[in-house]
Amino acid sequence: MSGSRVGRWVVAVPMALLALATIYPLVFTANVAMKTRRDYVLDRFSPTTSLNWDNIVTAWTSVGMARYFANSLIVVTISVVVLLLFGSMAGFALSQLRFRGSKTLFLGCLAALFIPFQVIMVPLTRVMADSGLIDTYPGLILAYVAQFLPFTIFLMTSYYKTIPSEIVDAARIDGNTTYGVYRRIMLPMGTPALLSVGILNALFCWNDVLVSLLMMPSADHRTLMVGVTSLRGQYSDDIPTFASGVLIAAVPMLMIYLFLQRQIADGVTAGSTKG
User: Fold this and answer.
1) Cα 99 versus chain centre, distance
2) Please, which contacts does 223-232 make with residues 24 or more away whose CB atoms are closer than 8 Å?
3) How far apart are CA 206 and CA 201, in angstroms?
4) What is the 3-state secondary structure (H, E, C) of the chain?
5) Most buried by CB count within 10 Å: which residue of 44, 85, 155, 223?
6) CA angle, corner 205, sides to 104 and 29, nearest 5?
7) What is the pLDDT of residues 161-205, one digit of tens each?
């Protein structure tokens, strides 16, 4: 019993320290966002004595965070829908359909996961510029789809491989076409994986700065995370306003993580076991 308790403490103490290290930046940001500029200059680390919402209101209205939030919401929603549509269709084809070159295509998707975005950053920007897609919603959506589609295909293929092929054969015997099998059988059975992959892709797209900065350079089309980074230069002496922008950007994804953390974990481990 004593050895078991010691083992628990050995695990619990580092995990508690890790949890505190993770939570502290968010608490510190919220504390700074509630301070006035004068209070922050006098003592930036002391707890605030009153809840001052003026900084958040200023960041949301005067600085333009509301417009940036809307831009991010539009781009992330459409990108996730497109990723799930094409990723689920490709995952179904690569896992359940037998055709020449399927293994090669799957290996190609795996290889694409190991290519850093910085390697394709310049040619992708040139292609988007030549196509007239810079500073447009379709341009940024296509960039996100190109970047995260291999990851989506990999997870959906891994998940669909766990579904017995007898189910697909039975659906074909009942008269379903390939599209009918996908729509009536695979999509409903793949709902857990679709939810998990959708959450992960939403997190990736929402927190992105580099791709958005390249595809949406103008101020009117900035996404939320790019708008937050611009606050630091434009309002360099107004740290509470900058902290308010960070808080606005972090809260939506934090809420998603708190309520759907089990689905996120399932998305990471989707297809890791079979049977």
Assistant:
1) 32
2) 223/68, 223/71, 223/72, 223/75, 223/140, 224/65, 224/68, 224/69, 224/71, 224/72, 224/248, 224/249, 225/72, 225/249, 226/68, 227/63, 227/64, 227/65, 227/68, 228/65, 228/68, 231/59, 231/63
3) 8
4) CHHHHHHHHHHHHHHHHHHHHHHHHHHHHHHHHCCCHHHHHHCCCCCCCCCCCHHHHHHHHCCCHHHHHHHHHHHHHHHHHHHHHHHHHHHHHHHHCCCCCHHHHHHHHHHHHCCCHHHHHHHHHHHHHHCCCCCCHHHHHHHHHHHHHHHHHHHHHHHHCCCCHHHHHHHHHCCCCHHHHHHHHHHHHCHHHHHHHHHHHHHHHHHCCHHHHHHCCCHHHCCHHHHHHHHHHHCCCCHHHHHHHHHHHHHHHHHHHHHCHHHHHHHHCCCCCCC
5) 223
6) 140
7) 888 888 888 888 888 888 888 888 888 888 888 988 898 899 899
Question: How confident is the model over 100-152, as pLDDT tens digits?
Answer: 888 888 898 888 888 888 888 889 889 999 999 999 999 999 999 999 999 99
Place of tokens 């269709």: 89
